[in-house]
UniProtKB/TrEMBL annotation:
<dbReference type="InterPro" id="IPR035999">
    <property type="entry name" value="Sec7_dom_sf"/>
</dbReference>
<dbReference type="GO" id="GO:0005085">
    <property type="term" value="F:guanyl-nucleotide exchange factor activity"/>
</dbReference>
<dbReference type="InterPro" id="IPR000904">
    <property type="entry name" value="Sec7_dom"/>
</dbReference>
<feature type="domain" description="SEC7">
    <location>
        <begin position="1"/>
        <end position="105"/>
    </location>
</feature>
<dbReference type="Pfam" id="PF01369">
    <property type="entry name" value="Sec7"/>
</dbReference>
<dbReference type="InterPro" id="IPR023394">
    <property type="entry name" value="Sec7_C_sf"/>
</dbReference>
<dbReference type="GO" id="GO:0032012">
    <property type="term" value="P:regulation of ARF protein signal transduction"/>
</dbReference>
<protein>
    <submittedName>
        <fullName>CYH1 protein</fullName>
    </submittedName>
</protein>
Length: 105
């Protein structure tokens, strides 16, 4: 039952990231903390990279905190700037909107 709900939450997230996260929180599949949501996005199992980028690019204060927690999950030690950017950008797809991209960088 739980696995079905998680799969449903992923599907909802891929269609509408905010509604997907809300569904997972309401069904106690995800805690409503920046860290837990960031971990869920970082693992990215079955998640659309474009949807992850859209969620992380939102300008709500909470989404920005999730973005910061998401960045903290990456290990950039011993990487040069290009390698670090490549690793970071591999985990989601940048949204097309310039303001969102600016916020993320």
């Amino acid at each position: 039952q739980r696995n079905k709900q998680v799969a449903m939450g992923r599907k909802k997230f891929n269609m509408d990231p905010k509604k997907g996260i809300q569904f997972l929180i309401e069904n106690d599949l995800l805690k409503n903390t920046c860290e837990d949501i960031a971990q869920f996005l970082y693992k990215g199992e079955g998640l659309n990279k474009t949807a992850i980028g859209d969620y992380l690019g939102e300008r709500d204060e909470f989404n920005i905190q999730v973005l910061h927690a998401f960045v903290e999950l990456h290990e950039f030690t011993d990487l040069n700037l290009v390698q670090a950017l490549r690793q970071f950008l591999w985990s989601f797809r940048l949204p097309g909107e310039a303001q969102k991209i600016d916020r993320m960088m």
